[in-house]
Amino acid sequence: MDERKASVKRETRETKVSVELVLDGTGQYAVNTGNGFFDHLLSQLSRHSLMDLTVEATGDAEQTGWHHTVEDVSIAVGRAINEAIGEGRGIVRMGHALVPFDETLAQVAVDLSGRAYAVVDTAIYGELVESLPSDLIRHSLESIAMEGKFNLNARVLAGQNSHHKAEALFKAFARALKDAISIDPRQGGEVPSTKGTIS
User: Fold this and answer.
1) Is the pTM of this model over 0.85?
2) Which of 5, 76, 80, 104 is exposed most, by the fewest CB atoms within 10 A?
């Protein structure tokens, strides 16, 4: 099987982003977006999906806040996932995970269907989670799904601590994605769809 990997660069007047991703990795990561908590969430995505992930990003955060950087990094990560999956031959395609983190419980389901759709309920209502505006956690997951061209349903079922909620969501997303991108030998290299395509 060919190595499933992708390299995506995105440059705008607001940001400069470089992403390298290997689906069949060991969870190695090097993430530098300038926002420590966002780096932490992306590192969780890599570690618990076992995808290798390298992210380097600079942006206009000092002038306009973190929105542009988080959005453009998430767009690039989603595009890299989609590119690395390719035709999706032999993949399991769907995955789900239920992840606890102390008092928090997060549930995520994904379908690598080629159809972009996201429903995300973070149950986070404060202004900031550590150094990251709380709504950008939702926006990041939505952007990854939309650019990754997959279906994502993610929600926090219980919890109080915002840090725990955000981290549990990214861990659950990682575990669901790990299952979905796995190769099922019984597929025989076929695309897992009655349509014959997930593109």
Assistant:
1) yes
2) 5
